[in-house]
Design goal:
Blueprint (H helix, E strand, L loop, with lengths): L12 H7 L5 H14 L7 H7 L5 H14 L7 H7 L5 H14 L3
Helix pairs in contact: 1-2, 2-4, 3-4, 4-6, 5-6
């Protein structure tokens, strides 16, 4: 059974958002990935995901961008940080930022 099959787990969003600041990059990565599955578009996680776009770990940056893209228009506040990420050294991070911006800007 996947997390997505468990239904909305809104009560997990604050803990996962806090985990984005964990000292362990693996915890941060899995928190960003989980936010995509727990509740795509979880508005409460947007500020923490925006901070995660500046994470030193490229996988965390990419996962945070993807989660923001899943949030769609609810993540409009992330647009400036995602635009900055278009200059990232890693091509796959830039790609994740581009896809996120496309999703957020959809009408």
């Amino acid at each position: 059974m996947s997390i997505a099959e468990l239904g909305p787990l809104r009560e997990a969003v604050p803990a996962l958002a806090n985990a984005l600041a964990d000292p362990d990059e693996h915890v941060r990565l899995h928190a960003a990935m989980a936010l995509r599955r727990v509740e795509p578009g979880a508005k409460g996680a947007v500020p923490a995901l925006v901070k995660a776009l500046a994470d030193p770990d490229k996988l965390v940056r990419s996962a945070a961008a993807a989660a923001l893209g899943d949030a769609g228009p609810a993540a409009r506040d992330a647009i400036p940080a995602l635009e900055k990420l278009l200059g990232d050294d890693e091509a796959f991070v830039r790609g994740a930022a581009e896809r996120a911006l496309d999703e957020i800007r959809k009408p």
